[in-house]
Fold each of these.
Amino acid sequence: MVPAPPGPGNRAREFSWPSSCSLCRVTFSIVARSDDGRLHGVAVASKFLGVGALVPAAEAEVGALATQAHANLAYRPQGLAFLRTGLAAADVLAELVAADSGRTHRQPDALRAPGPGDAARPDR
């Protein structure tokens, strides 16, 4: 149960998502860069509080990445280190998940400056 948003008629009510609701289990992350490739940002959404302190990593003129679902916090420093070497985003993700025994529980994505971004959605 979650408190209903403030507003007329919602003062003392609570709502809960139906058990069949797929939106209750939705997490997402997005990585983006400015047109000139110098600035990067990451946005995340999850049912877990404080996820923004754990999931995203970004460095100006290097790139950005996120590890969602069962986050592997080692992806942040390792991923940025790989991006600093100039490795393509797809190769960064391949390196990260190859060494991770829990890779089937991860949802990482990365974006390098400059270059295309990529997302790794391991087979489940």
Amino acid sequence: MKILRLLPLVMLAGCAAPSVPAAEPQAPAARQLQAVAGQAFYVSAPYAAPITPGSATINWQTGTPARGQLEYGTSGSLGLKGPTEAKNATSHRLTLGGLWPGTWYYVRARCTDASGRVSYSATKQFRTTW
């Protein structure tokens, strides 16, 4: 019994915590928004607001200035392209018109930054009102 009680103490006494250099604290969002040359940049999930029977305004953010375009459709394969923004920005807002009332749509943002890198948002759903 004594051996069993001492064994954990011996193991703990012989273990040293790994030495890790202190890193500058950084909020998760800040880490997520950093762009690395040659790699994709952050694009937030799009959300629709406001939504009407025939249109929806889609909003999203990017971690680096970029021009956005919406891809959308009534199935996950999308298939339709919306307008493209005229200039680079990090806060994006485009309106899709000509939609059917009471219909579920899938949408994602395709963004291109000044150096030509392209990143996509996750695909999200919204439903137009009646």
